[in-house]
């Protein structure tokens, strides 16, 4: 965007010379606009499940004499309520990531631990989708940051990889070290992402058409959270994908030396 300059201070130095301090307000306006969009989008996205919950509750009330109907409406109500819970928790996480300047809980994080717990947390989802998660790559790597935030980012990639994969396929999580950078790659052999959507899927609430029709449970916030979480840690997330072939999302984070209290691998004696 073009810089928009406003004068914030003017000091007369001599009769012919005045010093003017200018500030570029484009960035501040951009942030402000983003915040307004976020509130507007969020309210819009919340209206649908809130409306559904209300309608289903009313339907249950008026179907009180018909146990079968009550059962059907109740299970749909439960599904809508859990979708609403997921949506609100993601909205809160995202706005926290966007708002705070500092990570609250920064420490040396063992990559193995956050990957393992993200994999564990998605075991049930993978199981019911008939997808096998395969972990591999380098062990013993560390990054600096908030383990919970990073774990959620990896978890969101896993949740997507599983959700957009066919039954019987594998989802891989690989870790490697490349020139001082830890790379965590989540690979699936699923539906893939059309070229035209690849840049936009990291935007809030953006979902590719195929995903919309396939999975109504999505929030469109998962990748936006991944992007913000990783950027917060001085890293980046990139995507490779071919429709019909699959996708690989790679998180890159600056590696740090293992903390002192971690026993170094004993050197094997010759
Ligand atoms: P959602 O809750 O819809 O999955 P995300 O922000 O996590 O929201 O993802 C945004 C969109 O990116 C998805 O709706 C889907 O279109 C696409 N997407 C994300 N991950 C994958 C994947 N592994 N395979 C295919 N499409 C994906």
Automatic annotation (TrEMBL):
EC numbers, comma separated: 2.7.13.3
Signal peptide: none
Occurrences of domain Histidine kinase (ranges): 41-257
Keyword field: ATP-binding, Kinase, Membrane, Nucleotide-binding, Phosphoprotein, Transferase, Transmembrane, Transmembrane helix, Two-component regulatory system
Keyword set includes Transferase: yes
Listed GO MF terms: ATP binding
Subcellular localization(s) per the UniProt record: Cell membrane
Catalytic activity: ATP + protein L-histidine = ADP + protein N-phospho-L-histidine
Protein's name according to its UniProt entry: Sensor-like histidine kinase SenX3
Phylogenetic classification of the source organism: Bacteria, Bacillati, Actinomycetota, Actinomycetes, Micrococcales
């Amino acid at each position: 965007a073009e810089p928009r300059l406003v004068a914030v201070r003017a000091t007369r130095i001599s009769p012919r010379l005045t010093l003017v301090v200018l500030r570029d307000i484009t960035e501040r306006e951009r942030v402000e606009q983003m915040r307004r969009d976020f509130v507007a989008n969020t309210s819009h996205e919340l209206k649908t499940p809130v409306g559904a919950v209300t309608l289903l509750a009313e339907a249950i009330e008026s179907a009180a004499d018909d146990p079968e109907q009550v059962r059907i409406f109740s299970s749909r109500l439960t599904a809508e309520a859990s979708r609403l819970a997921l949506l609100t928790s993601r909205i809160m996480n995202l706005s926290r990531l966007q708002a705070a300047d500092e990570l609250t809980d920064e420490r040396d994080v063992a990559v193995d631990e956050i990957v393992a717990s993200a994999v564990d947390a998605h075991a049930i989802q993978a199981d019911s989708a008939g997808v096998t998660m395969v972990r591999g790559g380098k062990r013993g790597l560390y990054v600096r940051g908030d383990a919970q935030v990073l774990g959620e980012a990896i978890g969101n990639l896993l949740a997507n990889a599983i959700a957009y994969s066919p039954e019987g396929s594998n989802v891989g999580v690989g870790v490697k070290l490349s020139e001082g950078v830890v790379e965590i790659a989540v690979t699936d052999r699923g539906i893939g992402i059309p070229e035209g959507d690849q840049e936009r899927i990291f935007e809030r609430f953006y979902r590719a058409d195929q995903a919309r029709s396939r999975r109504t449970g999505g929030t469109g916030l998962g990748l936006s959270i991944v992007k913000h979480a990783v950027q917060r840690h001085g890293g980046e997330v990139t995507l490779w994908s071919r429709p019909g072939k699959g996708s690989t999302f790679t998180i890159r984070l600056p590696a740090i030396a293992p903390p002192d209290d971690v026993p170094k691998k004993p050197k094997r004696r010759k």
